[in-house]
Amino acid sequence: MTRNVTVPKISILAFCFNEENNIKKLIENVSFAHEIILIDDNSTDQTVAIAKELGVTVIQQTITDKIQQQNIAIDQAQSDWILLLDINEYLTPELKDEILIKISEPKSHEFYLIKQTLFFFKKRVKHGEFHHKKKIFLFDRKRHSYTGNPENKSLLAFFGKSNILKNRIDSFAYKNFDEYNHQLSLLSKEEALNLHNKNVKPNFYHFLMKPFFNFINQYFIKFGFLDGKEGYILAYINSFAVLKRYLILWLSYNKME
């Protein structure tokens, strides 16, 4: 960062599970932050011990609802600016500079969104739905109450593009199928719980048409096929995640595990 300004403090929040081989790299990548908080999902390796040794605050995950758990951690954070990370996301030097400049501006936005560059089995994905998604990445908790990070068109329409960061964040999710299955299960359960709370009951459309349309959208309409076999695998497994979400929802209504 080249500007001679006072930079507000930042607290970084990230979920983790059995990341003993990657946790040090993550912590080093965000060492510019005033505080790092990890929400640990009952890791069975040395993740927690390594994190604590490096001065990181660790909170054990006690709630299955990810948003509620994040809000608990936000309440415990020392800084007003909160940066939300996934454990396999990494910030480039250019992105770090942009973050610090944005939050130092007198008329900063209350939140900032970011686009991700997905590396799927080490290949950079340039097309498909994921390439266009935005998520709430950085926000001032004094002015913004975090309720999740799906793409919100009403918010984007109000703020325009000025609160979308120019630099993307590198995401190295899905390095292997074991990791994918764990993340898939967590996401599917979380979404199923949210739908159950809204009294949504699965039907023929949810089981057959939604996964089918999800695949068509990602693979054909958003040109996922241009990413080769990786584009097909990504579209397929994401569509399966949609099916699994409604299967879990159906099981919950029928009181089955």
pLDDT averaged over residues: 87
| Class per helix and strand makeup | alpha/beta
- Our estimate of the beta-strand percent is 15-25%
CATH superfamily of the largest domain: Spore Coat Polysaccharide Biosynthesis Protein SpsA, Chain A
* CATH topology-level fold name of the largest domain: Spore Coat Polysaccharide Biosynthesis Protein SpsA, Chain A
3D architecture notes:
With 257 residues, this protein is of the alpha/beta class. The protein is 44% helix and 18% strand. The protein folds into two domains: 10-171, Spore Coat Polysaccharide Biosynthesis Protein SpsA, Chain A (Alpha-Beta Complex), CATH 3.90.550; 177-253, no CATH class. It has helices spanning 23-29, 47-53, 66-76, 93-104, 129-132, 153-159, 177-197, 204-221, 228-253; strands spanning 10-16, 35-40, 57-60, 81-85, 89-90, 111-120, 123-124, 134-140, 169-171. Strands 1, 2, 3, 4, 5, 6, 7, 8 and 9 form a nine-stranded mixed sheet that branches. Helix 7 packs across helix 9 and helix 8 runs antiparallel to helix 9. The radius of gyration is 19 Å and the shape is globular. The relative contact order is 0.13. Residues 150-159 have low confidence and may be disordered.
Give the topology.
Blueprint: E1 10-16, H1 23-29, E2 35-40, H2 47-53, E3 57-60, H3 66-76, E4 81-85, E5 89-90, H4 93-104, E6 111-120, E7 123-124, H5 129-132, E8 134-140, H6 153-159, E9 169-171, H7 177-197, H8 204-221, H9 228-253
